[in-house]
Amino acid sequence: LVEAKLLSKPMRVTYMPGGVGAVAYNAVVAQRPADAGTITAFSSGSLLNLAQGKFGRFDENAVKWLAAIGTSYGAIAVRTDSPYKNLDDLVKALKADPSKVVIGSGGTVGSQDWMQ
Fold it and tell me: Dihedrals φ, ψ of 35, to 5°?
């Protein structure tokens, strides 16, 4: 924002780890309701959890949404020596015996990065 000359002075950034964005969201909404200049950034997983009501007593209507500024594409990667050569191979293996397929994922439980 500073480099694009959208701000006349540097913006203060505060990291609030934990709760997949819930900590920051609730702090801004509950503790700074009169501070109209506060901006909160989220990941797509955080937005999904917010929409599912997992952020506590405040929902998506407690703020004004400005913009989406990024895109998160999902991907499935396997080792080079994997028996799965394409998505169809993986789906067939999962349908045949899901207990034999080990899956690791990033993101929050219930987000688009998780297979349920």
Answer: -90, 90
How far is the C-alpha of 76 from the C-alpha of 1, rounded, in Å? 33
Q: Is 40 exposed, middle or buried (0-12, 13-18, 19+ CB in 10 A)?
A: middle
- List the structure tokens of 85: 């050569």
Residues 42 and 82 in one domain: no
Give the long-range contacts of residues 68-73, CB within 8 A, separation 24 or more.
69/41, 72/43, 72/44, 72/45, 72/112
How many structural domains comprise the chain? 2
Mind listing the pLDDT tens digit for each residue in 71-112?
Answer: 666 778 899 999 999 999 999 999 999 999 988 776 655 556
On the CB side of 101, how many CA atoms lie within 13 Å of its CA?
17
